[in-house]
Prior knowledge:
With 258 residues, chain A is mainly alpha-helical. Chain A has 2 domains: 1-60, no CATH class; 64-245, no CATH class. Helix content of chain A is 75%, strand content 0%. In chain A, helix 8 packs antiparallel against helix 10 and helix 9 packs antiparallel against helix 10 (212-241). Chain A is globular. The termini of chain A are far apart. The mean pLDDT of chain A is 89. By secondary structure, chain B is α/β, with parallel strands linked by helices. Chain B has a single domain (4-216), classed as 3-Layer(aba) Sandwich (Rossmann fold), CATH 3.40.50. Chain B is built from 7 helices and 10 strands. A 6-stranded mixed β-sheet of chain B has the order 6-7-8-3-9-10, with helices on both faces. In chain B, strands 2-1-4-5 form a 4-stranded antiparallel β-sheet, with helices on one face. In chain B, a hairpin with a 2-residue loop joins strand 9 and strand 10. In chain B, helix 3 (93-103) runs parallel beside helix 5 (136-148). Chain A: It comes from Sporolactobacillus shoreicorticis. Chain A: InterPro entries: UPF0014_fam. Chain A: Its main location: membrane. Chain A: Belongs to the UPF0014 family.
Amino acid sequence: MNGSTTIHVTSLMIASSLVFVTLFFSYWQKLKLEKETIISVVRAVIQLVAVGYVLNFVFGYKNPAFTTLLLLFMTFNASYNAAKRGKAIKRGLLISFLSIAVGTLVTLFILILTGIIKYEPNQMIPIGGMIISNSMVALGLCYKQMTADFKNKRDEIETKLALGADILLSSKKIIRDAIKTGMLPTIDSAKTLGIVSLPGMMTGLILAGIPPIEAIKYQIMVTFMLLSTTAISSFISCYLAYHEFFNSRKQLVDRSEN
Amino acid sequence: MSLLEFTNVSFNNREEDILKGISVSINSGDFMSIMGPSGSGKSTFLRLCCHLISPTDGTLLFHGQPIDNFEPTDLRKKIAYCFQTPYLFGDRVRDNIEFPYIIRNLPVDDARVKALFSSFQMTTDYLEKEIKNLSGGEKQRIALIRSLLFTPEILLLDEVTSALDVANTAIVEHVVTSLHNEGTTILWITHNPEQGKRHANKVLTIKNGEIQALETIL
């Protein structure tokens, strides 16, 4: 690399020979993955070229309203995907949108306030993307855990309801477990940073020629922001979503009777 | 005025009729035994009484008012429901005994707790016992104590003695009849006809979701 920050197209072409290694193993071991490998490589190249051009355009269009609109679009897409993990949650899309938006807003606000980043598309879009996608994964895990618990722990909830407890007190353990489930992957990944892997952002900066000592500062910021957003989004989504498992008469919904 | 009044109450779930056209009055001070084969709708009947579910048709009145008019948590504090298979939460017995007080934002009444443990022939040493080390009979008695810490207006018992031995059954029956003598209305599901008639003044038999018989014992 020689500290170079650009890669020549010819170098990339030569590097593409690495794909042949995969194809060779697939053919040799009769894995029948040749077609899928070729399709995935072609797709990756096309998608990345497209996204490169889009980002080039977006970064050049330094309009805060446009940046906000893009962040909202990203949040909506992430919410839509997260909501699919909790189909039992009726207003899943709205709850996800609110949770991710608030988590992202608070984190970005703190980062801007401390002067670490500026409200410019080349900073907001990649940082926002990291935050939003992390929240999306966390929310998906929260919803999955919550839906399973409300299904499997009906006896516990109904026992508490029958004693006269409100729906919040009856669901508190489930809510806490769901928040934990959403947050644990981010916490675990923070624990192993630098030991198991060098994270993507830090690797990218080092490859781009930034000294490692500078690169870790960015990575530390990313770790903090991901932890904060995951906590905020998981907390808001779980405390809003648990209501959806009860009706207005504080009864657990959809129970088969005998 | 009846304490609980079912008028043509039906309940269906996933297009299956669980209860059909139930009409029955339960008066204050009644001791009603509910009998019938498994799957006949007896538990659903009790679950309707404490508002864990609502009728899909018909009217259910409590103190002459539609049951939906009451705040569900207030209502359930007056109508205690003991499940056939008791669920004890937390790690220790104490977690279960403290829960009804937490709900009401009240300090634990140690004297009341001690008296109830004593009436079920247990000591308060049980408070520190781990749930996983309790027998089925002990779990059921703890669940009953948990439901009776605040004397309910109506006590709903769903086959609570079905898994108990003779000695434990006698203890539970003694506590329940004492409670009834003090004015609590009892609705007790049992499969034992002799037990069903021993203390009850009414015996309700449900079959296939319908009332098959309502017998008054003089």
